[in-house]
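Q: I have two molecules that I believe assemble together. Could you output structure tokens for the complex as a whole instead of separate predictions?
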Amino acid sequence: MSGRRSRSRQSSGTSRISEDQINELIIKLQQLLPELRDSRRSDKVSAARVLQETCNYIRNLHREVDDLSERLSELLANTDTAQAALIRSLLTQ
Amino acid sequence: MESVSPVSNQLLQPTTSSSSDRSRRKRKKKSPPSVPSSPSPSASLQKWRSEKQQQIYSTKLVRALRELRISQPSSSSSSIPGGGRAVREVADRALAVAARGKTLWSRAILSKAVKLKFRKQKRQRISNPATSPAITGSIRSKKQRATVMRLKAKGLPAVQRKVKTLSRLVPGCRKQTLPVVLEETTDYIAAMEMQIRTMTAILSAVSSQPPPPPPPGHEGGQTHMLG
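A: Yes, here they are, computed for all two components at once.
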């Protein structure tokens, strides 16, 4: 599975996209997922599994970002100390 | 402090960033990103994993947060749930800007923000002051005509369903073809990982107490090595 097919075919939107390309993308996606990357077997994990894990992972990431945002906002809500600490941390560290 | 050089993913330029970010670089003893072997997709992933990009993003984010902070009056009656949402949107917008407009999801995030502002002002001018949750609801409740599957190859209904769900999760990908969705997903995941790293770093830098460790299954490409 070396090299990519031309991208122009992809952007045309027709169903001419090769399965190889899709599989390549799915493999690449699989390598991003922490769970599936470490337990990579020689044969490919099924596409459905990869997609499922991807959905779960993205939801997890969303949740983490929301959580971090909450904490950041709480921090920012504590007026002067937070802002001073922010500025200080940027300038001195 | 403004020294945003173009993000060249392969070259990690040494010290053009401001002094404030140098600390973060020093503290992050990150090894060079381990990346799949294929050339062009790994370029974007490397970009999101590079220190340089993280510094750029964190600078943007801090600046945006500071402005956000100023807009909130320093009274104790600040709405925290609203505040968290605002911070999330600010972070997402900064992330989208950091993507330099090359990806669908980043453009979708930015256009969402613009639409929101536009509609909000319009309605306020016309009649009653519309609350943003209402507008967000109306924008989000658009019919999901996901014409994702135009391919004969992956015609399995299970795969189709999952791809549809996935396309709903990634912003801007609802009506895209399968390879587009997959590609956007990879970039989006890498970007979000960087976002989480950055926000965690900011939190620990400001609050001087380490945030709780991330849930398991997340120790993928990054290591929270701060304290």
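A: One point stands out. The first helix of chain A runs from residue 7 to 12.
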